[in-house]
Design brief:
443 residues, alpha+beta, elongated, Rossmann fold, 17 strands, 9 helices
Length: 443
């Protein structure tokens, strides 16, 4: 009886221990299963965050709940803001940089810009200080460009030098003393140019003449010969005689012509012995137009320049000033010049820019240079004329080149006004005042 009770107790003990071991094993298995992840908001990206990526600290210790495997939301990137940046004010400095090629690559970049149904406008700009010296070191942030009073952000900026295609225009209607100075100064033209430049030579008196038959190398042996062909004696300043015994005919008797066919008005007379003074002929417009047509054939990537050596007088041209100016503004041609003769005198040169109706233009050259972005020197001595060749060629070669895409239609045939400004006081900005869009600018 006692042995049976002992066996029953032992069996109960064994079954109890077996149940406890199974319970402990189940508890261990249950403790190995992690809890469900708790949704958490992404931690702010700040310096006091000790997450896996901390600014200035690298990878830190991972915090509980921040594990990528247990926190799927931590892997999600915050969506970018859909709000557009605030528009730039009209007077604010441009912050987004334009395309600025490396030194020496500006010319190539300017000629290979892709135009996608827009009008790319290129503006050569010369900046001078109060002493007339070129100003270097400006950046795109110093410039503001307005087209038809609308601010245009710059898309291109370079300070690289462009090769020059220069059409020299020599006035042969000058007086003999001024013409002699111009003739002696022509030899200095070649010294002001580089082997990468090219030159065409024109002259005018009563009509334009192409002396070079096209462009030739600036340092070629042909250029001195072509320049020698433009030398002339000039005209003499004589007192016109339109009445009296020396007018009309050479042989007179009792104040009348011996041969009535020689008298003023012919055999019928009719003008009371008065001979009209012949008008001077200065076909400046025709000469500039002839040079511009030759320049329009030059390839892109070259500065197209007309350099005029003249007193600026204009009378007798077939082409009008407005027609020639429109051709220049359409084909990106700038007019530079050296003013000689009476127009180069201090004070008188400015007065000669005024024009009375039905009279000769005394200084039309100044209007061409101001409208196309060129410069004009006034020189009276031969040495001054020679120096002006080098200084103006240096100005044309060392310019800031700005570029932007116009907001106006590609081709509308209307004139577009340009205003270039620099945010530094006391500086003179020289640039073209506007342009007409051309078909070659849109692709």
């Amino acid at each position: 009886m006692k042995l049976g009770f002992t066996a029953i107790a032992l069996a109960a003990l064994l079954s109890s221990s077996t149940f406890l071991s199974q319970a402990a094993l189940a508890q261990q298995q249950q403790s190995a299963v992690p809890d469900a992840p708790v949704p958490q908001a992404p931690q702010p990206f700040s310096a006091d965050t000790n997450g896996p990526i901390t600014p200035g600290k690298g990878a830190g210790d991972e915090q509980p709940g921040a594990n990528s495997s247990s926190n799927p939301q931590a892997q999600q990137q915050p969506e970018p803001s859909s709000q557009a940046p605030a528009s730039q004010g009209a007077d604010e400095v441009q912050t987004a940089p334009p395309e600025m090629p490396a030194a020496g690559e500006g010319v190539e970049k300017a000629t290979t810009i892709i135009h996608l149904h827009v009008n790319f406008v290129e503006i050569p700009v010369t900046v001078k200080d109060s002493k007339g010296k070129l100003v270097a070191g400006l950046t795109f942030r110093n410039f503001k460009v307005y087209e038809n009073n609308t601010r245009e952000p710059l898309a291109f900026f370079t300070t690289d030098s462009f090769s020059l295609s220069i059409a020299f225009v020599v006035d042969q209607s000058l007086t003999s003393d001024v013409m002699a100075k111009v003739n002696n100064s022509l030899g200095a033209i070649q010294g002001a140019l580089t082997p990468y430049d090219e030159v065409a030579v024109f002259s005018y008196n009563n009509g334009a003449q192409d002396r070079s038959g096209g462009f030739t190398g600036a340092q070629s042996a042909r250029l001195p010969y072509v320049l020698s062909m433009t030398k002339e004696t000039g005209s003499e300043m004589l007192v016109p005689v339109n009445s009296g015994p020396l007018a009309g005919c050479d042989i007179r008797e009792n104040g009348n012509c011996v041969d009535p066919n020689l008298q003023p008005g012919g055999s019928a007379g009719g003008n009371g012995g008065w001979t009209p003074i012949p008008k001077e002929i200065h076909t400046l417009n025709d000469a500039v137009l002839a040079a511009a047509k030759e320049l329009s054939t030059r390839p892109k990537g070259r500065r197209r320049i007309i350099y005029v050596i003249s007193d600026g007088k204009e009378y007798g041209s077939k082409a009008s000033y407005k027609e020639v100016l429109r051709y220049l503004e359409t084909n990106k041609i700038a007019v530079y010049g050296t003013l000689v003769g009476d127009s180069a005198r201090w004070g008188e040169g400015r007065l000669s820019r005024l024009h009375l109706p039905f009279t000769m233009y005394d200084n039309l050259l100044a209007k061409y240079t101001l409208a196309t972005g060129g410069t004009l020197d006034s020189e009276r001595s031969m040495n001054g004329i020679q120096k002006s060749y080098a200084s103006i060629a240096d100005e044309a070669r060392n310019q800031y080149t700005l570029g932007y895409y116009s907001h106006l239609p590609i081709l509308d045939g209307k004139f577009r006004k340009i205003d270039v400004r620099v945010d530094r006081p006391g500086l003179e900005v020289i640039a073209k005042t506007g342009y007409y869009p051309a078909a070659e600018d849109s692709h």
